[in-house]
Amino acid sequence: MHTHADQTLLVLASGSPRRRDFLSQLGLTFTVSAADIDETPHPGEEARAYVLRLAREKARVVAARSPGAWVLAADTTVAVGTELLGKPQSPDEAREMLGRLSGKTHDVFTGVALAGRHEEALAVHTRVTFRALSAAEIDWYVSTGEPVDRAGAYAIQGKGGFLVASVDGSPTNVVGLPLGETLALMERAGVPLAWKR
Ligand SMILES: Cc1cn([C@H]2C[C@H](O)[C@@H](COP(=O)(O)OP(=O)(O)OP(=O)(O)O)O2)c(=O)[nH]c1=O
After folding, report:
1. Is 75 in the active site?
2. Where is the site described as Important for substrate specificity found in this chain (predicted)?
């Protein structure tokens, strides 16, 4: 018997409001169920491998409690050379991270994973170049509170826009969900998309 694909449930395994907004903008109907996993990198783990591992883990944890659903998860990290910059744990750490990024180009990686009938995953890489920042600019930005809960201590889509000189690659990848690649992934897996109903 033919089953209508659009009856398949889509679950976003994320507590991130950015990811929720992006998926909504695509016209997709979904529920949200955040996965709480250990995000500690393995010793010497490369950024691409790290974000893929975490995205897959988040998707699997939620898929295990969502029978019959497609589960989408993602993880974003900032890398300076081989060093991973996660979310700052304090204003001092945020200042330190922003100082490291000032006047240089860094890498942003997002891993996207889909779990359900089968698994699919991909990682997207964007290069972001920061302006040379003054200490006063960094202090002010940290005082806005925006760096909290942001990989690399900035939000390009918010007040942190002034930090950035240029972006090479997917802009939505930097905010936490590379939209073009995520759509391609869902299409490949057979997840029902709004314009295909
Ligand atoms: C670099 C950058 C990161 N970020 C955010 C995206 C991610 O939400 C966050 C990185 O943390 P993640 O661990 O990728 O995601 P999360 O903890 O917010 O949500 P969940 O694991 O439940 O899905 O940093 C921005 O919003 N703007 C930016 O410019």
Report:
1. yes
2. 18, 76, 157
Q: What is the structure's pLDDT at 4? A: 47
* Nearest CA among 120, 160, 126 for reference residue 143: 160
Residue 109 near residue 77 (C-beta atoms within 8 A): yes
Could you tell me which of 70, 83, 79 has the C-alpha nearest to residue 13?
Answer: 70
Nearest CA to ligand 1 atom 16: 16
d(CA 175, CA 152): 11
pTM score: 0.93
Alpha helices in 77-133 (DSSP H): 91-101
Instruction: Give residue-wise pLDDT tens across range 139-159.
Output: 999 999 999 999 999 999 999
CA atoms within 13 A on the CB side of 147: 26
How do strand 70-80 and strand 10-12 relate by DSSP bridges?
Answer: parallel
What ipTM score was computed for the predicted complex, to two decimals? 0.93
Q: What is the pLDDT of residues 164-192, one digit of tens each?
A: 999 999 999 999 999 999 999 999 998 87
Give me the domains of the chain, ranges plus CATH numbers: 5-196 (3.90.950.10)
